[in-house]
Design a protein that fits this description.
The protein is of the alpha+beta class and 855 residues long. 45% of the residues lie in helices and 21% in strands.
């Protein structure tokens, strides 16, 4: 029978009433769901409600049905599995290495989040399933008297299978989901053994199955992910389980077996949205068995799979048209670019100190390439002999990895973004199988005596064992890198969460409430949390009620989202809310509790929340422009600096306040706060040439808190003192952007450590600015710091040179530091100011503030 006749026969065997109706229903379900989710249509609300409420109950039906079928088929499965089990020596070797690798991972890799935001979404959905039987993300909510009240629930763009498994464990292990780290770790040896059994079942090559499973489990990315809460370990586990059950169904070929496989595949599809695409490989290769005669196998399989794939279909449908990529980047159309970048990352040379720079082993990727060439050659060569075994393997792998194309093409699968490196787990099991092929066959070839067709089983076993020891030893010798969390050790968000949880462990046990930019992180752990914006909407009475309810254990956290908006990869999914945080901090009364340095000058700041401020600085004090006034008599030629201000609060609490006025850090006035309008006049002869700093401070003596802290600057230009910002520039160059006068490099007000300056120069390290001062001046004075608009600089130093000779130089400084610079420039013709980055130039926004030339 030729291929055309074989295909026609398959269609004929489907062309019966049950087959026809079942196929129509199976196709109708995804088409209808996708159509209703069209963002241009009027039915998206239906998909939203189904996505929030249907998956939870459908998972329960799927679980009960799966358990019932397996109980019925239990005896058959035990008989079948006994038939495929290899020799005891190989089975024991597999078990020993699975245990050894698990012990290594459990003792050398710390259990912690690696993709915090995604992993916390799964946790938050699980909490919502447990308390409310909803499958959306509880973005912010409060746990109270055994209930979770979600202030805001959104459809989860993540598939929900992992969350459902978490939900199933919560009655046994608790709602504090830290136990998940142990649960996912247990999947490591199980995934190893399942992959081994699946490959044995299909290839009848136990040594190949062992080596492929071993190579997969030895990859650092895999080990790290099995010590996290990611969905990718479940993906590997279910992919191996699906292949094993597929072979079982293929061999037994009954309606019951195929139905069980459909349930497994449908749940496998709930691991990632893209996983749905790899299912077609299973379906296509199952067709010859499903349609070997006109019966119920095919329609029941199709309908079962389609029906129980509804949760992931709803997710895909609802999020049509959503752009998840951040910044200026478009996710689509970068397949070959991402492929090349990923190869570069996965084969990156180790550092000079022998440290892994990424959680990939280069040899593995080169073995995969060799294996791929070998597989193609073997498939073609065997096909000429009418043996299509390896051609089928190659075809299945190509169909299976349509999902890989979708990941790299549609969701920016660029491994230079650390959080994307987990996508490699979709590919690594197949890569391990392909890499193991030539090694296994080569060892078996050399273990076969000359002029003999009988393989030396002991010799082949010994060869594979030696190879296994070498590969395992190579992974284990990177022990220190595993200890250092080489995977995502630069992921600021996961470090932030790790530090916050570390701080929490040190606190006495108590019910706490957090105000945070990503409140679902806390909700996932069973801790009440609210977003900054929602907290700001609370009335004063509700804020007080909240603080009283939690006995003062209400905390505000300024995290990553509150900081710089230019520190993320343009392909990454990011959102910054720095303005929201600044406004919140300005309006609310908080007491600092803990500052945790994450990297460079990015801090996690934890503060106890005391409610809304009763007073804003503007309501307490208003200041007027500083002005000079003429001499008060004909005899006196000295002018005065007039400082005018209004103290505006009349309330009883103001009687406990202190007003302080300083000039250039010298005390002018310190007196009890008193309502009224006031003036102070300072003889200009007492001022320093150049910029003078006038500071207005109101302090609550009872709480020791500053209620207002306002700065003004007055320029005294007597005796020919000039502002350098107004002086003509001879030449200038900088590595990024353009120089700005009286503005930061990005055109904002000059701001260093929260203080605004009206006069200065905004540049970017490295930079060189040259002035021809023609020997007119004797001194230069200025302050220098990094602008608050960008907070990720490695550090900058600034140097003043006169006619090429160094006159003054700052140490390397980072954000939040302001350094005063002063240099003698008498007799100098050419004045140069240089800024030099300590490492990378990124974010080195240098502000030279209040610079003056003094004769």
């Amino acid at each position: 029978m030729n291929y055309k006749d074989a295909i026609l026969k398959l269609f004929k065997n489907l062309a019966h009433p049950a087959g026809f109706i079942g196929t129509i229903i199976a196709l109708f379900i995804p088409i209808l769901i996708y159509f209703y989710g069209d963002p241009k249509g009027n039915h998206k609300g239906i998909i939203r409600e189904l996505d929030l409420n249907l998956p939870f109950w459908l998972f329960w039906v799927q679980l009960i049905l799966g358990i019932a079928i397996f109980i019925i088929l239990n005896k058959d499965f035990r008989e079948w599995i006994k038939r495929i089990l290899p020799a005891k020596s190989v089975s024991i070797m597999t078990l020993v290495f699975a245990v050894a690798i698990s012990i290594f991972a459990g003792t050398q890799i710390e259990a912690r989040h690696r993709v915090q935001s995604d992993e916390s979404v799964f946790m938050s959905v699980a909490q919502n399933m447990y308390y409310n039987h909803e499958s959306g993300t509880c973005n912010q909510g409060e746990f109270d008297n055994g209930a979770l009240k979600c202030n805001h629930t959104s459809n989860s763009f993540k598939t929900k299978g992992l969350s459902f498994l978490y939900y199933l464990g919560m009655p046994l292990f608790g709602t504090d989901l830290r136990w998940i780290f142990t649960a996912e770790f247990v999947m490591l040896p199980l995934a190893f053994l399942l992959m081994f059994l699946a490959i044995v079942a299909w290839t009848k090559q136990p040594l190949l199955a062992f080596l492929a499973s071993l190579l997969m489990a030895l990859q650092p990315t895999v080990l790290f992910q099995f010590r996290a809460m990611s969905v990718e370990p479940l993906y590997i586990f279910l992919s191996a389980l699906s292949l094993l059950v597929f072979k079982w169904a293929y061999d037994r070929n009954t309606v019951m077996h195929w139905t069980f496989l459909a349930l497994i595949l449908a749940f496998f599809a709930q691991t990632r949205q893209e996983t749905i695409f790899c299912i077609f490989a299973f379906i296509i290769f199952a067709l010859p068995k499903l349609l070997d005669k006109q019966d119920a196998k095919a329609p029941v399989f199709f309908v079962t799979f389609s029906l129980f794939s509804v949760p992931v279909l709803l997710t895909i449908s609802y999020f049509q048209g959503f752009g998840f990529q951040g910044g200026e980047f478009s996710a689509h159309g970068h397949f070959f670019e991402d492929l090349a970048k990923n190869w570069e990352v996965m084969t990156m040379k180790i550092g000079d100190n022998g440290e892994l720079r990424n959680p990939f082993l280069s040899y593995f990727n080169y073995l995969f390439v060799i294996g791929a060439i070998y597989l193609v050659f073997r498939a073609i060569n065997d096909a000429r002999k009418s043996d299509f075994t390896y051609l089928k393997i190659l075809s299945f792998l190509l169909l299976y990895h349509v999902q890989t194309y979708v990941i790299l093409e549609n969701v920016s699968g660029d491994f230079s973004i650390e959080i994307n490196q987990r996508y490699s787990l979709v590919m690594l099991p197949s890569m391990a199988f392909v890499a193991a092929l030539p090694i296994t066959h080569m060892i078996q070839y050399f273990a076969t005596p000359m002029n003999s067709k009988e393989q030396n089983a002991k010799g082949a076993f010994a060869g594979i064992l030696i190879a296994a020891i070498i590969f395992t030893g190579w992974t284990f010798h990177y022990k220190q890198d595993f200890n250092k969390n080489i995977m995502y050790n630069r992921n600021h968000l996961t470090i932030e969460e790790y530090e916050i949880l570390g701080w929490l462990k040190q606190q006495p046990k108590a019910d706490r409430f957090f105000i945070y930019g990503r409140p679902w992180h806390f909700v996932g752990y069973g801790i009440s949390s609210l977003h900054y914006d929602e907290a700001r909407k609370l009335s004063n009475a509700k804020m007080k009620k909240l603080i009283d309810k939690y006995k003062g254990e209400v905390y505000y956290i300024r995290g990553l989202d509150c900081w710089d908006s230019h520190t993320y990869h343009k392909k990454a999914v990011e959102h910054r809310i720095a303005t929201t945080c600044d406004v919140f901090e300005r309006e609310m009364d908080m007491t600092g509790v803990k500052n945790i340095l994450i990297t460079n000058n990015y801090w996690v700041q934890i503060a106890k929340f005391n409610g809304r401020k009763n007073y804003s600085p503007e309501k307490i004090i208003s200041t007027k422009n500083l002005e000079t006034v003429p001499a008060d008599s004909a005899e006196s030629k000295a002018k005065s600096l007039r400082i005018s201000y209004d103290l505006k609060e009349k309330g009883q609490s103001a009687s406990k306040w202190l007003f302080v006025l300083t000039l250039n850090d010298k005390l002018i006035t310190s007196a009890p706060y008193q309502f009224g309008s006031f003036q102070k006049e300072i003889n200009v002869e007492k001022l320093q040439p150049g910029f003078n700093h006038v500071r207005f401070i109101v302090q609550d003596l009872a709480t020791k808190k500053k209620l207002a802290d306002i700065s003004k600057f007055y320029f005294e230009g007597g005796n020919g003192t000039v502002s350098l910002a107004d002086y003509s520039i001879e030449s200038h160059k900088q590595e990024w952007g353009n120089l700005h006068k009286n503005e930061s490099i990005e055109g904002n007000k000059l701001t260093v450590d929260g203080l605004l300056y009206e006069n200065g120069i905004g540049t970017h390290a490295s930079s060189t600015t040259v002035f021809n001062i023609n020997k007119k001046y004797s001194k230069i004075k200025f302050s220098v710091g990094l602008d608050d608009e960008s907070l990720c600089s490695d550090g900058v130093a600034v140097e003043v040179l006169g006619d090429g000779k160094s006159l003054a130089k700052t140490p390397f400084f980072k954000n939040g530091e302001l350094h005063k610079v002063e240099a003698d420039i008498a007799g100098i013709q050419t004045l140069t100011i240089k800024s030099m980055p300590q490492k990378s130039i990124n974010c080195s926004h240098v502000d030279i503030v209040n610079p003056v030339l003094i004769p």
